[in-house]
């Protein structure tokens, strides 16, 4: 395997080989080119960071900006003009704007507030499992892994139940578009539809506010002027999008890997108190966030002896950092009893000021999903273990998730 910009660009195009096993590729880069220049399809000069220590430092490096307006030309070449209106949020900003926007929604995602959602999440989990066929193959992604977090986040935001499927469809279109003309048109239309939807929903909630997060944000916007109107729309989109995609893929990845590692599943079933630690290990081993969202260098920056020039884009390979043997013993092994598996050891939820706001909710949803699923269907098995997993092929390796998860929940003896 050669380490060249062209080789990385091939990985960026998400070839089936790369999608099947990105970890072997990242292992090579960590040794040969830990900060590797790329030529991705969008044409912007980009550097990929793969080592744990570098990744952790880069995630909180103020020289690597998240403010998309500072790199607007590059941003438009990658995402187009239609994305700008939806990306005026905390994910794409630096302090003090990031601090202000994050403060507006932080109270809804504190561990205490999230724990109060446990009964409702339990109810949703049981209802979804009730609807699943037990003796015949079922794709657990559309039947269980995706509906659970979309219902939870829509409840939290105040999105009506009849609109959940539309939200999921539109956000999937936004997440999985490529660089072709037809794909870009689909992406633009989906983004315009989402912007129009949340604009309409905000108008409706101004007239009839409810006991939900979006109504609370509207009240802040209208009374304190702490949010602009576009920040309000964009924040609603971000919470909906980020609040279900990553959790859904995490649940799918976790179920697949536990079923593929029966000794690990058996250890978890015999020791339910391991569930929290097991979720952290599953996030580390093959979490749903493969790469952090783009940053760009506001000045020349050096990592591992490589100069990242001012203006270059930077991608941080979370999946690679979480398999770095300099940080984790036997990193390519799944071990639900891994010692010292502290919640801040892996970078699956990020690090620094942009640490995932919804991490407590994602953890709780995943813990309950796994616990109730395997308690209710202890003999669950992959529908066709010999077939191997089929992973998503996406234009940017941002998400790491399965395209399908066919299982039999209660196979015949």
From TrEMBL:
<keyword id="KW-0503">Monooxygenase</keyword>
<dbReference type="InterPro" id="IPR002397">
    <property type="entry name" value="Cyt_P450_B"/>
</dbReference>
<dbReference type="InterPro" id="IPR001128">
    <property type="entry name" value="Cyt_P450"/>
</dbReference>
<dbReference type="Pfam" id="PF00067">
    <property type="entry name" value="p450"/>
</dbReference>
<keyword id="KW-0479">Metal-binding</keyword>
<protein>
    <submittedName>
        <fullName>Cytochrome P450</fullName>
    </submittedName>
</protein>
<keyword id="KW-0349">Heme</keyword>
<keyword id="KW-0560">Oxidoreductase</keyword>
<dbReference type="InterPro" id="IPR036396">
    <property type="entry name" value="Cyt_P450_sf"/>
</dbReference>
<keyword id="KW-0408">Iron</keyword>
<comment type="similarity">
    <text>Belongs to the cytochrome P450 family.</text>
</comment>
<dbReference type="InterPro" id="IPR017972">
    <property type="entry name" value="Cyt_P450_CS"/>
</dbReference>
